[in-house]
């Protein structure tokens, strides 16, 4: 059989997670109509926020491709599964019948969550999400953890995900791999020890699903127009009382934020104004100027072929809801071309609002 053109795309986070991968995937699912959307990443520590029919969803297990009813949805073997969270989301998203998880997914139990939240080092020093992912991955490496195939409640959802996905790829079908977290949180390449319990790069996302590197056509690395980080760990260009004077753009954002009556430190005011609050934990995210150095290094390790920039409207409110490049302001265009030039990878998508349709698509 002659293989059709390979169309597999990985969408991955280029900074510290929460770049808006969920929103980007919801757009791609509606626009590109993929046959399969497969979720990769660590597990339910990730929250992908999307909107469908006016309703907000913070998805921790179900792939965001659920917005397109004809996509088959998979969760790869590398992903940790919290059965209660999974079953609840399947019910809320009404995806029963088209969602499957790999029989080898490792299972998070209550004791993993207790170990995560009760461990001072993890909870206070690393600032984990408390969702049990770290302790579960630890146990998985210790080879004593339960797998999805051992859980009777999951029996209706069990599949051989690599077999299904590779068969689809070979017959020319369109597959999107949905990564979670972000590059700076990688156990291998991030700001260790302030990282998650696994690598978070595109290669790991492919491995999570069981797809070989030769089968990947595009890697879309997603960055916010600025940088955010939730949990502990270093963050370059964190905006504070002193250095804000060096950033005219941030001074302007702060002015708008204060006009709304937000209070606290400069960074807290900015975070409140920009709505930067963790999807899973509700913790405030720290706000920083765009971290070019991290972005460039992350594009290299991810093998980026395209860049998507999200939340443009948050720092350039005049760009809100724009769906064509000409509608963007000169300062927003300058910001975008600066990122493209510095990283050396084409910016192909620009997100101007939280809804799937708030997107400027520059792909050919
Ligand atoms: P993780 O896998 O947890 O890293 O999540 P994620 O990359 O899917 O991002 P998450 O949904 O946690 O956070 C992104 C936030 O920004 C959400 O609240 C989205 O609704 C919002 N968002 C995404 N893109 C845009 C955008 O272009 N404009 C605005 N205003 N909000 C956006
Ligand atoms: P853990 O993954 O829960 O062990 O948390 C380790 C670190 O990764 C903490 O700093 C978390 O805040 C961060 N983290 C884990 N998952 C996400 C995510 O999806 N978005 C943003 N930060 C995350
Ligand atoms: Mg998130």
Structural class: alpha/beta
Assembly type: single chain
Supply the CATH superfamily name of the largest domain: Adenylosuccinate Synthetase, subunit A, domain 1
> Quick one: biggest sheet?
10 strands, mixed
Q: Identify the CATH architecture of the largest domain.
A: 3-Layer(aba) Sandwich
The Rg value, from CA coordinates, equals: 20 Å
The overall average pLDDT, rounded, is 96
The amount of beta strand, in percent, is 15-25%
Bound molecules: guanosine-5'-triphosphate, inosinic acid, magnesium ion
User: What's the level 1 CATH class of the largest domain?
Assistant: Alpha Beta
- Measured as a percent range, the helix fraction is 25-40%
Strand runs, count: 14
Strand order of the largest sheet: 7-6-5-2-8-1-9-12-13-14
Q: What's the SSE pattern? A: EHEEEEHEHHHEHEHEEHHEHEHHEE
Separation of the first and last Cα atoms: 28 Å
Using the coordinates shown, work out and report the CATH topology of the largest domain: Adenylosuccinate Synthetase, Chain A, domain 1
Model description:
The radius of gyration is 20 Å and the shape is globular. Strands 7-6-5-2-8-1-9-12-13-14 form a ten-stranded mixed sheet, sandwiched between helices. It folds into two domains: 8-221, Adenylosuccinate Synthetase, subunit A, domain 1 (Adenylosuccinate Synthetase, Chain A, domain 1), CATH 3.40.440; 244-288, no CATH class. The protein has helices spanning 21-32, 83-93, 110-118, 120-126, 133-141, 161-170, 202-209, 248-259, 266-274, 292-302, 312-315, 330-343, and strands at 9-13, 36-39, 48-52, 55-59, 72-75, 99-102, 158-159, 175-178, 218-224, 227-229, 286-288, 306-310, 347-351, 359-361. The chain has twelve helices and 14 strands. The chain is of the alpha/beta class and 364 residues long. Strand 5 (72-75), helix 2 (83-93) and strand 6 (99-102) form a beta-alpha-beta unit. It binds guanosine-5'-triphosphate, inosinic acid (IMP) and magnesium ion. Residues 13, 17-23, 46-49, 180-182, 279, 310-311, 313-314, 351-354, 358 line the site of guanosine-5'-triphosphate.
């Amino acid at each position: 059989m002659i293989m059709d053109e390979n169309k597999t795309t990985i969408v991955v986070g280029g900074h510290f997670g929460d770049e808006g991968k969920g929103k980007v995937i919801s757009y791609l699912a509606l626009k590109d109509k993929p046959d399969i959307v497969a979720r990769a990443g660590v597990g339910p520590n990730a929250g992908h926020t999307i909107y469908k029919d006016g309703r907000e969803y913070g998805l921790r297990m179900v792939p965001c491709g659920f917005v397109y009813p004809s996509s088959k949805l998979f969760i790869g073997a590398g992903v940790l599964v919290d059965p209660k969270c999974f079953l609840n989301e399947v019910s809320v998203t009404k995806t029963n019948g088209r969602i499957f998880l790999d029989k080898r997914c490792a299972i998070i139990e209550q004791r993993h969550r207790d170990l995560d939240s009760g461990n001072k080092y993890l909870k206070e020093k690393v600032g984990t999400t408390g969702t049990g992912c770290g302790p579960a991955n630890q146990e998985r490496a210790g080879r004593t953890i339960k797998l999805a195939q051992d859980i009777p409640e999951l029996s209706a959802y069990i599949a051989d995900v690599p077999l299904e996905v590779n068969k689809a790829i070979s017959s020319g079908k369109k597959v999107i791999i949905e990564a979670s977290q972000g590059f700076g949180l990688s156990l291998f390449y991030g700001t260790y020890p302030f990282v998650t319990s696994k690598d978070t790069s595109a290669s790991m996302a492919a491995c999570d699903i069981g797809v070989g590197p030769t089968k990947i056509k595009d890697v879309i690395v997603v960055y916010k127009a600025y940088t955010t980080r939730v949990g502990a760990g270093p963050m370059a260009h964190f905006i504070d009382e002193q250095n804000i004077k060096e950033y005219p753009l941030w001074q302007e954002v702060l002015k708008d934020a204060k006009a709304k009556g937000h209070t606290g430190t400069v960074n807290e005011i900015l975070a409140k104004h920009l709505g930067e609050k963790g999807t899973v934990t509700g913790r405030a995210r720290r706000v920083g100027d765009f971290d070019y150095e991290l972005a460039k290094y992350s594009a290299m390790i991810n093998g980026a072929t395209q860049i998507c920039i999200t939340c443009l409207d948050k720092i350039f409110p005049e760009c809100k809801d724009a769906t064509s490049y000409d509608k963007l302001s000169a300062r927003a265009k300058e910001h975008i071309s600066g990122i493209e030039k510095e990283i050396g990878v084409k910016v192909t998508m620009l997100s101007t609002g939280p809804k799937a349709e708030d997107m400027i698509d520059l792909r050919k």
